[in-house]
């Protein structure tokens, strides 16, 4: 997504420059971060509780 | 978006509190499948959680009536208040009787 | 520009391609709505034929008409088709066709997504029907409980058709739901605030959000069960730390909201049609909206009432019994509002009204038996008997099919532009009405006499013979009635005389256009000031045709409409829609290959087709927007507006939010499964569970921080920091995965695989 957005910016797409598309990509990246942290918590929890 | 949040907040709180109190009951019972039934202190905790959820739900109704938070559109304001009232009734009806009848049988 | 020249210019811009090509390249909501409806009716006919086979088998004791194997397939496919391939797509079709017209706009928010969803539905449905024709249809019941559906109970390919085919079809439901949600919130006529929206749009909005949050648990359950069947990951096997009840929880987390997903659109149609038939306005608009929204949320707290006999603790039963009885309240609010509307007006007994009266008579009975089975002691007696079969048919046929038949006759002049010819419809109505009650009223008694559901035959001498014979004869009477409805529709569509616009004298915007509608809907977009714009201004259609509304000048020669603020309906920006393209159909065909690869276990096809889908998606997104800044453009009325590409909240932003809602519900369901198995299953986690060290934990935290900060700093920093951050997260995922022992040995390890795999599906893709 980030690479794709960069390529669109290079190609001069208005949406990639104005900020709307970057906002969408940021939303999905934030979700990926949240998922990673929750999964890490779920994987680590039994060990911490033991 | 604020209007949509105003509309969805009361029932979202009900859903969260219903899931939370039921989940708490599940966690308590899961450790008691083979042991004695849950005691007075655990039952008290469940009832306390239910009362807390009802209090939050009531607060939501109060906040939605406050001039600072209420919807500028009178029709949407009425719908929002109706939803908050329904959510409060739902919280009282679905949380209090079940927790008073606490049992893991 | 006069009205005729405007019509010609707009038609050139908005029309689908001519001939056969147009069927595959159209992205127009009117065409796709009609296609959705036609395919849904086809599946209704298939599901109805299967119902007749069931009734033929059960008409007499020890019947040899269908053997047990065929009966199980027919029974499973009847439920599956009616739920997944008829009811939900019929709502989608009606919403796709009607919503833009009712909301005063020119198309749905994402026209290509509508087409993609439609073709996924067609290909997925075809997969299911093929299984039936090939004699390998799913046979474990439409609920697919393991172990009946696991490799132990069903070693053949039959359940795989269900698990994979339904997941494929659900792409259609999710995409339609995103489409409907964004359209209702952002694509309305200027001035149409939320409180001035047509009531059907409220119901469609609630239903769409319910689809976004109700379907993911089932998609997750289907994936887990298919992983168990295909790769031996034991999520539902007690001996390996799993639990068969996890499936029931995931299934009914979807399954009970599904009942309301089916009922609410019908209630939306009733709330729209009833005031017009009663020649008045809807009583209690606000209360009805509140009731619909609360039904939508409360319905997610009831799922366990389908599992009262599974050994749930008493307090759990009390929670869900209380919630199940509570849901009767918002339902009753709607019923009373409709009765109030009837008493306020002067009802005329046109055919739509007859179907609505049939709805009242039937649905109220179904609702009351629903309250009966919400009471635990009664449910224990009636569970898995024909009482439940009768109850659910009263709710689903009474609460969905009858209102949809009212909707069919109400909007048929809109679909066809012809006057309706009602005499055959009246005969059909009485046949269906009496046939239905003759079938299902009696089956309540069969259930109370102890007749279990899902049995393929029964012994004589238990007092069930007469009931079943009468039920079967009545079932065939009902089928003849439905056949007459179909014939009536064909007659109306082909030979009836041309009708007038707005034959019912309704006030909503879909009647403010000539019928059948032009591909652009409105020659210019209206400014709305009330819930019934046509009652306020009967001349509105003429003024819109003259181009006196918004975007009446087709000079820019592209598909344009206006997007509005959510609450106030104030104009926000101009959206430029894409033209006709075969890309959605091609992409759904490649998606079909992906699912086919999984079904036939030709796994080499899976990554190839997944790459094809990604390539199509990238091409799709690449073609969005332009490379020239246009600045504010005139729209005919009010201030000039920017195009969507030049704003910070384009339609894709809103689509992403609601897609993430579905995605997050999927993830939440997965976490629920993890916690459920932890609390229920013995030996969880197993002694040799994976323990990622501090290094992996710190790397994950660093990756998370890099990603979050990198996307916020400045545009160049995203690639410099966020992309490596996501790669770091992915690396920690892979390293943890390598620590997890064999995922086929224990459900805990299998769950970790799925959790980490879900994370890995997100991180590299985003970089």
Describe the protein:
- With 50 residues, chain A is mainly α.
- Chain A has one domain (2-49).
- Chain A contains three helices and no strands.
- Chain A is rod-shaped, with a radius of gyration of 17 Å.
- Chain B has one domain (2-100).
- Chain B has three helices and no strands.
- The longest helix of chain B has 29 residues, at 2-30.
- Among the domains of chain C are: 582-619, no CATH class; 692-766, no CATH class.
- Chain C has a two-stranded antiparallel ribbon.
- The mean pLDDT of chain C is 93.
- Chains B and C meet through helix 1 and helix 3 of B and helix 9, helix 10 and helix 21 of C.
Low-confidence stretches of chain C: none
Overall pLDDT score of chain A: 87
* Number of self-contained structural domains of chain A: 1
Which strand order do you get reading across the main beta sheet of chain C?
1-2
Tell me how many strands of chain A there are: 0
Helical content class of chain C: 55-70%
Poorly predicted parts of chain A: none
Work out the largest interface and the residue count of each chain: A-C, 40 and 60 residues
Number of strands of chain C: 2
- Structural class category of chain A: mainly alpha
Transmembrane segments (chain B): 47-67, 79-96
Keywords (chain B): Membrane, Transmembrane, Transmembrane helix
Subcellular location (chain C): Cell membrane
Catalytic activity (chain C): 4 Fe(II)-[cytochrome c] + O2 + 8 H(+)(in) = 4 Fe(III)-[cytochrome c] + 2 H2O + 4 H(+)(out)
What's the gist of this structure?
The complex is a heterotrimer of chains A (50), B (105) and C (767). Chain A has 50 residues and is mainly alpha-helical.
Write the layout of secondary structure elements.
The complex is a heterotrimer of chains A (about 50), B (about 100) and C (about 775).
Chain A: H1 2-11, H2 14-18, H3 20-49
Chain B: H1 2-30, H2 40-65, H3 74-100
Chain C: H1 3-14, H2 19-25, H3 29-58, H4 68-103, H5 111-133, H6 158-186, H7 199-231, H8 244-277, H9 285-298, H10 314-326, H11 328-344, H12 351-374, H13 376-382, H14 386-416, H15 423-448, H16 465-494, H17 533-536, H18 540-545, E1 559-564, E2 571-577, H19 583-599, H20 605-622, H21 651-680, H22 694-710, H23 715-739, H24 747-766
